[in-house]
Amino acid sequence: KTHVIHWVRLDCYNSIHKAYEDGKNRLEALLSRLHSSNVPTLSAGSIKLNVGQFGSALQKSTMSSKDYKKSVVQAKEHILAGDIFQVVLSQRFERRTFADPFEVYRALRIVNPSPYMAYLQARGCILVASSPEILTRVAK
């Protein structure tokens, strides 16, 4: 089930009717993109992507690798102590890209068809999020 929402700032419009119509049109455009027949035909769990074309590594993260590893150790200690039985550690990554954010969302939806996904646009920021379960495999 997908919930599509468009927030309209009323102070940017001369009338509530105009704000409503603009919001409705933007929702219809997004729904059209969601239902378009141009859905990538990738098999679950596989996307071939030349990451070299995107330049350097991540530009911003909410914590260092050292701090993240420390959090993992602390979580394990809490599990062994019986304080918790499950934990979800999260980390925010940011980078500039020329990729269409909605296409990134669609690719994530195919690789990891999780109910825990989000695509949000707000004030110059676009958030694409997905449950990290399948995205964190370690291959040796």
From TrEMBL:
Q: Which GO terms describe its biological process?
A: L-tryptophan biosynthetic process
The record's section on SUPFAM superfamilies has: ADC synthase (SSF56322)
Taxonomy of the source species: Eukaryota, Viridiplantae, Streptophyta, Embryophyta, Tracheophyta
InterPro entries in UniProt: ADC_synthase, Anth_synth_I-like, Chorismate_C
User: Any idea what this protein is called?
Assistant: Chorismate-utilising enzyme C-terminal domain-containing protein
Q: Which PANTHER family match?
A: AMINOBENZOATE/ANTHRANILATE SYNTHASE, ANTHRANILATE SYNTHASE COMPONENT 1
**Ranges where the Chorismate-utilising enzyme C-terminal domain occurs:** 65-139
